[in-house]
Amino acid sequence: MQYSRQIEINLPRDQTAALFDDPDNLSKWMQGLVSFDHLDGEPGAKGARSRIMCVQGNREIEIIETIEDRVMPERLIAIYTTKGMWNRCEQYLEETPQGTTLWRQENEFRCSGMMMKLMTMLMPFMFKRETEKQMRAFKEFAEAQP
Fold first, then answer.
1. What are the backbone angles phi and psi of residue 140, rounded to the nearest 5°?
2. Which class for 15: exposed (0-12), middle (13-18), buried (19 or more C-beta within 10 A)?
3. CATH of the domain at 13
4. Going residue by residue through the chain (146 aa), what tens digit of pLDDT does each one get?
5. pTM over 0.85
């Protein structure tokens, strides 16, 4: 399953990128985040790996993030893996003529378990809605900064 989403953030790109790129800010906008721990490689650099612990409903989920490409403030591409799920997420921060930031996200999901395969086929809107929710949460956080 593949899809794209975008949102405009009423801040200049450099300011948006600085807020987005700071792992200390994750807990301020990422709902369900329990922890974000660097595992290996240079933090934030290509090849770096981190463990993200999240709560969804009544269960805790461990996600491993591997940075595939990072040229900030332009883009961050990462692979996220968890049991039965692989997600490649390309994130682009583009300057608009008005001096705001267009945050565009390209997602590709691959599933190995039958249940997750069915969910992506029958209910892709759930994945898209969660992406939009996280993007709105970041926008609200970023725009509220002094």
1. -60, -45
2. middle
3. 3.30.530.20
4. 899 999 999 999 999 999 999 999 999 999 999 999 999 999 989 999 999 999 988 999 999 999 999 999 999 999 999 988 899 999 999 999 999 999 999 999 888 866 666 666 656 677 788 899 999 999 999 999 98
5. yes
Judge whether 107 lies within some domain: yes
Domain assignment present for 76:
yes
Beta bridge partners of residue 37, listed in sequence order: 51
- Find out whether 126 and 113 touch, Cβ atoms under 8 Å: no
Domain count, the chain: 1
| Torsion angle defined by CA atoms of residues 6, 101, 93 and 90, in that order, rounded to the nearest 10 degrees | -10
- Contact predicate 11/140, CB 8 Å: no
6 sits in the region (left: phi over 0; alpha: psi -120 to 50; else beta) called beta
